[in-house]
Amino acid sequence: MLTVKIKNIEFKSPIMVASGTFGYGDEVKNLVDISQIGCIITKSVTLNPREGNPPPRIHETSSGMLNSIGLANVGVDDFCNNKLPYLNNMGTKFIINIAGSTFDEYVKVLDKIEKSNGQHVGYEINISCPNVKEGGMEFGVNSNATYKLTSKLRSITEKLLIMKLSPNVTNIEKIALAAEKGGADAVSAVNTFVGMAIDYKTGKMLLNTKFGGLSGPAIKPMAIAKIHKIYNTVKIPIIGMGGISKFEDIVEFVRAGANLVQIGTLNYKEPSIACRLYNELEQFLLENKINDINKLVGVCGK
Ligand code: DHB
Prior knowledge:
Layout: E1 4-6, E2 9-11, E3 15-17, E4 39-41, E5 58-61, E6 64-67, H1 76-88, E7 94-98, H2 103-114, E8 122-126, H3 137-140, H4 143-156, E9 160-164, H5 172-181, E10 186-189, E11 193-196, E12 211-215, H6 220-231, E13 238-240, H7 247-256, E14 260-263, H8 266-269, H9 273-287
Parallel strand pairs: 3-4, 3-14, 4-7, 7-8, 8-9, 9-10, 10-13, 13-14
Antiparallel strand pairs: 1-2, 5-6, 6-12, 11-12
Helix pairs in contact: 2-4, 4-5, 5-6, 6-7, 7-9
């Protein structure tokens, strides 16, 4: 069995696609059988439209990707008018990712979406973007700010509330605990690690903003460690991510403590990877006589 629940919401697959890698669902409709995906997390939505950072804003590394998109998106009004109708009719669960520079921005965006007729099952709150000058990651590195924001958002929605955590902290457990205390239904972890790359010949920095977020297989062991620490600290479900590229990685994340997972960077290489890994995971469970993936959560030891 591969169905997984967060609160009252049942997902037919524990595999979601990560924010920013599937647009608003419409960009990939000819490439993927969307019905096979557990849940699509939309690209971050902010109050106003954003152009994002100037290029170059993506750089491929030997086993990952550095990016500094700067939350380019259409803004919440355009999102509600022109993106939500497609998402509503996709036939697959979706969660709306929200980002902001200030406390009030997060609140306003969520409030506007609440008043639309969205069929989304919840919100993922990006308190971990490394690429904007203000806000973003500032919330995710401070447990007090995380608690305050989570409690406020909790008071205005009954849908799933998931806080997306930054790995760029000394003590991620403390932030996860603040999210749990604030009333979050789950945490997703981890967002990208701050990274930088330089052209060795010219000395030129390879991202316009100098620093960016590193994702992909390079970060997997670090992500696993963070997830296990969170698992040992909170009771709410964990959505694990960080460099998943094969079904074995999913099992590893689950054993570390994740209830669900997200695939991010690898979607760019193979847009239907979430479907392929679902089938491979199902086969693995069958071959190993494991009748329910939930039984593997946190099962690891020396
Ligand atoms: C962006 C946002 C993120 O949360 C991230 O991890 C990387 C990039 C962005 O839009 O710049």
